[in-house]
Amino acid sequence: MKIALLGLGSVGRGVARVLSDPAYGFVITAAADSKSGAVAQPGSSLDMDEVFSRKAATGRCGDTAWNAERIVREAEYDILVEVTPTNAQTGEPALSHIRTALARGKHVVTSNKGPVSIAYPELAQLAAEHNAALLFEGTVAGAVPIINGLVHGLAGNKVLQLFGILNGTCNYILTRMEEESLTYAQALDEARDLGYAEADPTYDVNGTDAAIKLVILANAVFDMGVTLDDVIRIGIDRLTPDALRMAGTTGHTIRLIASIHPEKRLLEVSPRLIPKDHPLVVEGTLNAVTVETKLAGPITFIGRGAGSVETASAVLADLLAVKERYGGT
Ligand code: HSE
Q: Considering the domain 146-304 in this protein, what is its CATH number?
């Protein structure tokens, strides 16, 4: 199937790398960064090594006659892969890209949290009206298949509660403060160097990023119809190494926990004390989610919540699901 790839940053590179394996059966026919676009001749596909080399040399992946908007509207593709940077306030420009593609009857796969957290009900309806797929596994917990795990793996099994570590940056900061007695500011600097933090890391440390992921899960998996304002949010920005030391004296640690209680309609992100041997106590940038299920008790998912190829693995799973359902051209 033919892919239009919007966003050539860390995730876009990962997607291009993964899709370069012809065994998956996808070709990239159009690609755009924030300044330009490249479109393959009809019947052929883009050489992505060439596209990235051009971008490295000139700052642009293609020519300015094309850009993301024009590609979405006019280029030939079956699936739009939207991995441009997240805008948590407006969802733009990704929200418009996704709307336009779905209205053309094109499938959309995205790891972009902004548009899905802001407009999931509208986008899902648009997708249904145009018989198009809208999949976004990579928006929550990166490589960890939490959305597919809940929707398909645990189909029919009622989830009583969900608790998770959904922000790798905060988890890294807390781990480093605890292990090395770093201050909050020192640990945040390290996390930024690792490239996990959002462009504005305030969104990570004040709990917004984890809250956005909760909204996506709440709406797409539990059909709760909520917005970011429905999430109680307390970040880790005021935590001191002393608080972590004190927690340690009773065999506990502190983690930023995101939780959903679907029946009570409760959504919360806050630092909580948890026993050090609890399965949710993961180190570094890992994510972890425990779901309390009615039929099978607790089930915990753990893995890499961000990263280039890691997020691309979630995008690939969605692409293969589209291919299986809608076939290829
Ligand atoms: N800033 C996010 C995190 C990236 O630290 O988890 C993945 O959504």
A: 3.30.360.10
pLDDT per residue over 277-322, tens digit each? 999 999 999 999 999 999 999 999 999 998 999 999 999 999 999 9
pTM over 0.90: yes
Ligand 1 neighbourhood includes 198 CB (under 6 angstroms): yes
306 lines ligand 1 (CB under 6 A): yes
CB 231 within 8 A of CB 256: no
- The sign of the torsion formed by the CA atoms of 234, 239, 245, 246 equals negative
Q: In CATH terms, are 2-142+309-326 and 146-304 the same topology? A: no
Task: For residue 97, give the amino acid letter.
Answer: H
Residue 264 is among the residues annotated as catalytic for this protein: no
Second-level CATH architecture of 2-142+309-326:
3-Layer(aba) Sandwich (3.40)
Selected catalytic residue, list 2, 106, 213, 323: 213
Dihedral sign, CA of 281, 282, 287, 292?
A: negative
Give the helix ranges, DSSP H, for 31-183: 48-58, 68-74, 94-103, 113-129, 146-148, 168-180
